[in-house]
Amino acid sequence: MMKTHGDYKQRIVDSFNKQGLMQVLDCKLGAISAGKVEAIIPFSQGLTQQHGYFHGGITGTMADNAAGFAAFSLCEAADSVVSAEYKINFLAPAQGEFMIARGEVIKSGRSLLVVKSDVYTKSGDQERHVATGLFSIMRLIGGAQKEI
Q1: Torsions phi, psi of 11, nearest 5?
Q2: What count of other Cβ atoms lies within 10 Å of the Cβ of residue 121?
Q3: What is the pLDDT of residues 13-70, one digit of tens each?
Q4: Do residues 34 and 3 lie in contact, with contact meaning Cβ atoms separated by under 8 Å?
């Protein structure tokens, strides 16, 4: 089991709510547990590419956000996180009523956390795996006071 610190769920919610982009995307947090975070956005024409699917940039953003908050769930209260790098593979067209990104920490190091993030679209009860990514998330020790 991964080690958390204090009320990590509330810290995730508070930090998430500071992200203007997530508000623009109408993104909501889903399940939160130690080393795992889910983020969900509804489909909107404003989020599409020329074929009517969720845009790849939105897919990458969702994967990155879920990965970052999964890493953040294991940080101490005074810490924050930023993405250092990521690679994403698109597996299928991202078409559905919702997009769901699920981040999960693979390895939690002192300064870097390695996180996988899988992205799905959902229509009715059916989920489709549309992307998977691997992320290096940097722990910013004492970085929480620099959040807006």
Answers
A1: -65, -40
A2: 23
A3: 999 999 999 999 999 999 999 999 999 999 999 999 999 999 999 999 999 999 999 9
A4: yes
Q: Which segments within the chain are labelled E, that is strand?
A: 28-33, 36-42, 80-90, 98-108, 112-123, 126-140
| Distance separating alpha carbons of residues 19 and 29, to the nearest angstrom | 12
How many other CB atoms are there within 10 angstroms of residue 73's CB atom? 25
Give the C-alpha separation, 63 to 53, whole Å: 16
Distance, in Å, from the CA atom of 129 to the CA atom of 42, rounded to the nearest integer, reads 16
Structural domains in the chain, CATH included, are 8-146 (3.10.129.10)
Nearest to 134 by CA among 113, 108, 109, 120: 113
Contacts of 49 (CB under 8 A, 6+ apart): 55, 56
> Would the pTM count as exceeding 0.90?
yes
Say how far apart CA 117 and CA 38 lie, in whole Å: 9
